[in-house]
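Most newcomers find our protein records easier to grasp once they have seen one. A learned vocabulary of local backbone shapes supplies the integers on the structure line. An example says more than a description, so a record of this kind follows:
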Amino acid sequence: MDAHGSLAAGVQNQADAAWKNLLAILADADMGVQHLVKITTYLLDAKNLPAVNAVRKEYLDEHRPAATLVVVKELARPEWLFEIEATAFKED
């Protein structure tokens, strides 16, 4: 969802919004994608993986954190097609 609570249509647009949100959270903690150590991707339909991976590549570029893909029956809200969970680490 964007800052106004709107949800984009389609899995690729939802993935793009989720990555933008994740980068904003990282930036607030003085971190970037290089601090991501683990990502879990949740999809309703495995056929959407190529679209989600394309968006992921845009944001991660060459960084390759550990990753898990989980195909689920549903997410917390019925209109959600995609969700990511991330773990980041930064030394003091």
